[in-house]
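Supplementary Data S3. Sequence and structure tokens for construct A.
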Amino acid sequence: MNIDNYSLAGPGQAPHRGAETIVPLDQRMGLQGAETSADPDPEFAQFYGAFMEWIASTAPSPGSIQRYLKQYANAGGELPYKTTQKQMDALTQVMVRMKEQGLEDSETYKEIRVALVSVSSANMFFKEFMQGVFKPSEDEDSRENINW
């Protein structure tokens, strides 16, 4: 049996010590601005404009930000941010856009970050719950008395 060493340097070549690529946390989390400036989404641009108008007219809290996302209707009357996954995506894009505009030190940015953490936690809890429901434990002791 022959096992070849594969790495970023190429097949059969081990990377030099210290040559690993360091990826910033923002890039790993998807908070880099490349995708928003390269391919602007007109639907998101409309949402962002409405969201920033709403932010300017109120003192946002994480709960009010989540409520706004749930009730926001686009031009077609649809509610695009009903699910926690869609809310996470929208808040991430809002944070990217605000960072591009140099607003990452604002109180609003901090409130949006707290809302993102809250929505992410709810999303993780929901996914874990659904996994438990649809993929029960394969422990033989717990399934011992079940007759199918």
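Construct B, processed identically:
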Amino acid sequence: MPLVLLLTNKGKKSKQGEFCSTQEIIERYKRHTKDRVQPENQAGGQHLQHMQHEAANLMKKIEFLETSKRKFLGEGLQSCTLQEVQQIEKQLERSVSTIRARKLQVFKEQVERLKEKEKILTAENAKLREKFGGLQQRETPSVEKEGEALCTDGSEKSDVETELFIGPPECRVRRL
């Protein structure tokens, strides 16, 4: 007598005698798995229905927003009543005032940032003037004397300089 030993999904042993054929065992297995799959399919079906309902609601919302946008742009106002047009006008006025208020706020913030930057740059400029002011006063007399010496050597002055000189503009001696 052949004996078939089956294990259940819970780990229990199940003995099947010769009265059960392999075909019967497969049929039992299919019924069991079919029963387990159907509740999952039902949950999946409910989820699918929910998602379809959600998609339909979103499509309605998109359609409403597109219609509102067209009306705000002035398209398709022929079908609107006077009250609807006045309501659209009020909404546009509120929107414009909100935008203007935000724009004003952004400009004020920019002005404040620029004022802070101006203070920083003014302070930095003052430091640089202090640092290089003394240095410039020491160098200025010698540069002026050199310029006078170049101009008073009795040499010819050139009306047009064709050479490249780096430094402050001053009288140059024409080279032959």
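Residues 85-146 form one domain. Helices lie at 22-72, 82-151.
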